[in-house]
Amino acid sequence: MVLMIRYSYLQFAQSRVKLRLHPRVQFLRKSTSESKQVINTNFDLPQFVSVTHMKRHFNKKNINYVDGFTCLSLDCSYCGLKNSTIFINKTSGYFLCNTCKKSGSWNTLESVLGYPEKLISLPVDESISSGKDKWSRISKHIHPFTSLSERGKADLLKTILEFQNFPLTKLNCLDLHVDIKHNYIYIPLKNNDDIVGYKMITKDGEENTFPPNSACGIVTTKRSSKAAVIVHNIKDFLTLLLYNLSENIVCLPHGEQKLPQSILPLLENYDRLVLWLGSNTASWDSARVFARKLQSNRCFLVSPLEEQTSVYAAHLKKKDVLNIISTAPSVSHPSIITFNDIREDIAAELHNADKVSGVKWQRFPTLNTILKGHRRGELTILTGPTGSGKTTFMSEYSLDLAIQKVTTLWGSFEIRNQRLAKTMLQQMVCQPLEKNLTKFDSWADLFEQLPIYFMTFHGQQELTTVMEAVRHATYVHDVSHVIVDNVQFMLGLSSREAGFLDRFSRQDQLIGAFRNFATVYNCHVTLVIHPRKERDDEPLTANSIFGGAKASQEADNVLIIQNKTNQSSLKMKKYLQIAKNRFSGDLGMMSLDFNRNSLSFSNKEE
After folding, report:
1. Whole-prediction pTM value?
2. Are 94 and 109 spatial neighbours (Cβ–Cβ below 8 Å)?
3. Which of 94, 113, 141, 166 has its CA 20 to 30 A from that of 333?
4. Are residues 169 and 65 in the same domain?
5. What is the CATH number of the domain that holds 422?
6. Comparing C-alpha atoms, which of 325, 321, 230, 324 is closest to residue 273?
């Protein structure tokens, strides 16, 4: 039984969940000398390449290229076709051919440019291959929308998408399919003319995307326009079809959750992009993040005011949709603003007062009462005595948010990723894994769908190396929550990075770096920090955080796990103290009752 558990656990770590790691991080691999799994840390960390370096290389090789908004583009010598183009991301160096779908990193492309025969060995983007396979399998069991009767088409649109008397001729631009048995609608996602995935809309109107985390295609109209309106779901897309727009309409594969870099070449030819993403300030945040990724000087944002929370909502309220699109404000310069620039932000907050507070926890309702929610752009500090359960609590805290589609990047320098992921899986299902081995595969499949990424840094790491990984993941995967556990593993560094600073000064430098990152990238950062040595009978305070005062000063939220011993029964009780809350100012305590079967603090929350 022990061997079975160990094998199943390792299988989870590598085969099933695959620990979708940051590109700078290696997957778990089998050791050639041992049967156990090891983490390979002997590798070169790929870094963002500068645009200048890429241009110099092209000039040196006499290769013609076009400098676009987000990509450099050049003819694909492998395809040899007239319109085949390789797009190279100007930030990450990731490249993709729009015809043969060869893809990879800049380092790979740099080594084969000028040698067409070497391009043959380059791989096709894995997400594209996966999406094609999924569509090929599902298309055997579905039927073209055109095969339905006129009444059947109208009834389906009314039942699933709540459209009354939708003009069916407007759907000619879409290759709709239906599952007659289950009343599902299927819409293919295309990368140019290739189907690379699909959206499925259930009879309840729920929209799902396949592949679920990295679809490389969009749903779009094909008008000869240099402008496009970008929406996050099919209902808004279909609503815009009702209007005589001169702009193209684009529906993103993953809504407001993420914008894969493989999508950027499909939007490269547009001079004007209007982003109308959703119904709350989280959508507003995503729109601004996407605008930065798409090149903000061509982007215009529709704010989520009450009367225009979505295209569909504005249509139902008979608002002037065309005017809303044409008057959408541009994204301003990031360093210079006026009141007029933030006027829409303030109006959006007032109209969405209950949503401005952020994503609500489902497992910790007391946190919602005190902190109000989890918000982008903030810095949270978690501290507590050694062995108090900081990592266990933070894994469940972040899991709760990830289940609600908060894309999360975990940097665990103290706990191996296998152990961390196993803990999170057990917390997700609230049952001991060892006693439910037959359910492991189905549970792992569910966990694999969560937007969680892991860095394989372990032990002492340099700040510059970690920040490079974090910035890369934030750009490529649209990460909105970064967790570093714990900060002390980034302090015992060589003098090459730290100069002659002591550990306190280095920690202040680190806190400042993450504070700046959270603000600039509009990403929530949670840092786990050990406390200073205190007397066992004294409760910890915000001043107990190791290092100087900068940590508690810079933090928006300070969370402290407190151990309290009942003197009569000698039983220890844990509490989570919210010692600082910059958003609302509310402070308080939350009981933490640990359940060993589920490794959860939430089951018995008072």
Report:
1. 0.78
2. no
3. 94
4. no
5. 3.40.50.300
6. 230
